[in-house]
Amino acid sequence: MLDILTMIRSLKRPALLVRAAKCGVDTYARGIDLPRLLRAEVLPGPGQALVELMEIERDLNALRCNGDAAYSVAPHVDILIAIMAEARLLETVSRV
């Protein structure tokens, strides 16, 4: 099974979504954004957070690909921002 960082690196998403997320990654506030996105009171570690975020992103991407009227780009960008920031945090923690 692929590790979570390899899975993230293999994601293929439209360039505009990725660029939008990259613009927001430096303003990501883990203590504020992650509980809102995961609907959780207790923050998981970055590895578990990434697993949960990837599941949410997969569902959002399916809506996007199917042209579902329920799809909204803003939540998708928010999730991608969180994935990028949590991956950065996991890589930092893993090096220590």
Relevant terms:
96 residues; 0% strand; globular; 5 helices; mainly alpha; single chain
Please describe what this structure looks like:
- The protein is an all-alpha fold.
- Helices cover 71% and strands 0% of the residues.
- The protein has 5 helices and no strands.
- Helix 2 packs across helix 5, helix 3 (30-38) packs across helix 5 and helix 4 packs antiparallel against helix 5.
- The longest helix is centred in the last third of the chain and has 23 residues, at 73-95.
- The chain is globular.
- The chain starts with a helix and ends with a helix.
- The mean pLDDT is 94.
Helix-strand blueprint:
Layout (H helix, E strand, L loop, with lengths): L3 H6 L5 H10 L5 H9 L7 H20 L7 H23 L1
Arithmetic mean pLDDT: 94
Give the ordered list of helices and strands: HHHHH
Compute the number of helices.
5
Instruction: List low-pLDDT spans.
Output: none
Radius of gyration: 13 Å
Number of strands: 0
Main sheet: strands, sense, barrel = none
Shape: globular
Helical fraction equals over 70%
Summarize the structure.
Helices cover 71% and strands 0% of the residues.
